[in-house]
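Now for a concrete sample entry.
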Amino acid sequence: MSYTVIGSFRTSHNYASEHIAAELDVSVEEYNRIESGDQILTTEQAARLADFYKVDPALFFLKGLSVTNYNHGANSHSGPITTYNNSYGFKEIVEKLMIENDELKKELQKFK
């Protein structure tokens, strides 16, 4: 099954068409035409979607970029797939390690 970028974003974030249509302030029918590619997305709508999904609005205007879902078979996943932000607190950890590193360098200088 082939999806547009807009449809892929919606399904990967587990939103109903009604929810995204409300975000765009359009009818569900109009949203479905946009998602299927039968109606052109306006720049204002792209900006709203970009703000909603926290992405660059240009992403919605890339030509020839369709997403194909090959999620079939016994080991397929039918629910939402989430990612985890592994950088949470990373900056603080790096800063702490840099301070400790500087302190250790100062201690080593005492022995030279």
